[in-house]
Amino acid sequence: MNLNKKSIVDFIKLCQRVLHVSKKPGREEFMNVAKITGIGVLIIGAIGFIISIAAQLLGQI
């Protein structure tokens, strides 16, 4: 890896800028993100379960 001092300093400045612009989400925003994430996990799990059941049924034929 060819890291020099300038690239490290630039990276630190970029991180500081991102942290300065970002904000803590409010309760309502957090709950919305949590609900959407939970629904996504349930959908992915259901799809995986259906595929698993289908594979087992097709294996018995």
Automatic annotation (TrEMBL):
One Pfam family it belongs to: SecE
Keyword Protease (UniProt): no
One GO cellular component term noted in the UniProt record for this chain: endomembrane system
Coiled coil residues, start to end: none
GO molecular function per UniProt: protein transmembrane transporter activity
Signal peptide range in chain numbering: none
Family: Belongs to the SecE/SEC61-gamma family.
Stated name of the protein: Protein translocase subunit SecE
Source species of the chain: Methanobacterium spitsbergense
